[in-house]
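[job 4471] stage=fold_predict status=RUNNING
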Amino acid sequence: MARGRPSKKTHIVEAACGLFTLQGYQSTSIDQVVVTAGVSKPTVYSNFPTKLVLWETALILLTEQAHDEMQKILVRLQTKKNLTLISGWILLWETWVNKVERLAVYRILLGEQHKMLPSTFVLFTEFEAVLESTLLAWISEFSVSPMNFFALKAVSKEALLMPALMKQSMMASAELESQLDEFLIGMNNTKKAK
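[job 4471] inference complete, writing structure tokens
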């Protein structure tokens, strides 16, 4: 193999990622992958015996890409001065949900669970762990209880991830920041009252 050129296997996975992102799992066929990747059907099947194996390999690639991107964003946020817990939190969530490939992973796993194997769900858990670990690394800079972390995550999913998945408008960043700030203040006041 020539240096600097991706392997055929990597090329096939990248082509499949694009198709899965655009069309979902059910609507993507191996024949479409063959055409998009510009390889023969035997080449695809020699590397990926089933479409599910190809999807799981694509999910691993998407997880690695998400990890790299989220780490870069986290490092940038950690070097900014005067960035609040909530404004950095929202930036991390917006980075996560503004990537069509990541939304496709959720749509495929939520919409086509019946076609997946337990190994697929393990890979999905690893995919979601990228966001979780990034958020945990961010809040480690601040004093946030596990309960508040859970609540912030739940509200953020409802305000940002779910609308993105449903192709609806998300809550404006400023409005969400205000509401999350108020929530944290309320939670801290509740602790003091006890």
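[job 4471] summary: The CA atoms of residues 67 and 130 lie 6 Å apart.
[job 4471] exit 0
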